[in-house]
Design goal:
The structure is a single chain. This protein is of the alpha+beta class. Helix content is 36%, strand content 18%. The strands form two sheets. A five-stranded antiparallel β-sheet has the order 1-10-9-6-7, with no helix packed on it. The chain has a five-stranded antiparallel β-sheet with strand order 2-3-4-5-8, with helices on one face. Helix 3 crosses helix 4 and helix 3 runs antiparallel to helix 6. The longest helix is centred in the N-terminal third of the chain and has 19 residues.
Length: 318
Amino acid sequence: MNIEVFSHSKYKNSPKPGDDMLLIIPDKVYAVFDGATDPTGASYNGESSGRFAARIAAQTIAGVAMSGSVASLTAGDVLARVSDAVSAEAIRMQASHPPSTTAAVVFDLGDHYRLMMGGDTGIRINGREVHQYHKRIDAVSTAARVSIFTTLLGRGMPGDEAEMTTRSIIFGGVADAVSRGIVSEAEAEASIAAAAASAGLQDQPDVAREFVLGGIRTQQGYANRSDHVLGFASLNGKDMIMDGIADFTLPKSDVQSLEIFSDGYLTQPSGVRVADWEQEFARVEALDFHKTAAYPAVKGSTTREFCDDRTIVSIFRP
């Protein structure tokens, strides 16, 4: 199998690293980890909490892959090791924001592959079959963001300013933005209604309301909560909810290609090469730069930043 790899931080022209991390040990393991962005901007020995969470996850998975015990471990066992290691590093680093990461892993076990995923980093098989967990809470954030961004842009606010202001509002909570006079109560209600509709929560509008008003700063409170409709799987030191975990095997004879990608790629190309992924990324950027129309997302691009970090590991037959 051939291997192609590409990773780019969200920053267009800055040496500052993003929060994605990849792992390749040929004939052993291939993986991508997407650390959660630390909205506080804190740095720990030059790393964000998301980046060190992804790094610790990669180191832990490497240890599991080299131990020879992969076949005897459950997905819960493996991901618990990752989660515990991330938690221990957070304590050691005295992180002020709870660090967390996703994981999409392909273990090479001789005559077959074992695919294991926790969170919304995806894997595509043979250029067709996509496995990716989508968080309902992101649908809420995305719809609220699109509503607020459209409002600010409609006032004549320049695109970059509108995007960065919207990010601040969606993070800090629409209630705070109303109290500071940035958006009106009517505009806030419009964003909540859009969020409820997008996430299929019309019959539970208070669920969308609570999160939109509180903002993404409250999101960690929903991590690994199986008792809440907005609960999502996260490798953050707590027991993961199984809804966000996938674990299955594939005979190597059935596999022509495997692509592991972070959610900075909003769509997938028809081809499996890195050049195909980058061409598709450029198409999406050109068609929906602000990520409010054809390809809505939790964040949009600006002249200085892409909407997210992006990483692709492609393994394919020549």
